[in-house]
Design a protein that fits this description.
The chain is of the alpha/beta class. It is built from 9 helices and 8 strands. Helix 3 (about 80-95) packs parallel to helix 4 (about 115-140), helix 5 (about 160-170) packs parallel to helix 7 (about 195-205) and helix 7 (about 195-205) runs parallel beside helix 8.
Length: about 280
Amino acid sequence: MKFGLSGLLFPHLDMEEVISSIGKLGADHAELIFDLPNFTPEFNLNKLPKLRKLVNSYGLAISIHGPIWDLNPTSWHATVRDLALKYLKKSIDVCNALGGEIIVIHPGRCPFPHEERFLLPAQERFLNFIQSSLKYARNRGVKLTLENFPMNTEFPYSSPQEMLTLVKELDDLKITFDVGHAFLNKTWQKLCSPEKKIAEEIKMVGEYITNIHFHDNRGERDDHLPPGKGIINFTPILKTLRKINYNGWVTVELHKTEDPIETGRIGLEKTRELFRR
């Protein structure tokens, strides 16, 4: 099992410093963001061979998180959809150039999901986006993984149930299961025993999970805290992961604090400790 850190923890550093910080903390892999804050639009891709040498010097495996913030692959505007696909393909190229294995993508957004005339076309556009991306990733030896979101209604194919439909239909599509997102989804619905329901979802989609985003929160917002700093009871979740013999990647996905190095150290240490129990 590989335990890694996300580049989200280091928005104040350039790419070389991000990789070095993660490597020095003893992570097994780094998940870099092909978007702000890690790869800015001005980033010179000619630097990739030098970055790969740095990655290799720390013995790091690499995953790349595709564009996050403002490129909606299900947009009603064809220009936006084309740009989203262009940059997702670029993120795949970067992953390949760095010797990486996994791409993480977010579901697209539909502003009016309760109206079929808006929802159905959005679902179709996302399916087309995934199919094009899968073909591109497959040809470059990279695994494409879809991440679950807390806000299921506005993001088609963002719940584990919907994702299961997609991964069964599309060869080679895998899942990045975000524990913090799953917990928020349950608490926002005011469901009892959220962790047990998360464990049930993991059991349902377990054979397709390739990467786990591991972080804590207090049940109100997406805090991205180190495990133990929020209110998630990880015991039922970890018990189910052991039952399904999960042996993939675990990415500790934390947000910047006053001392990101110490936060990263604590996050990695606590996560490894929880998985050893």
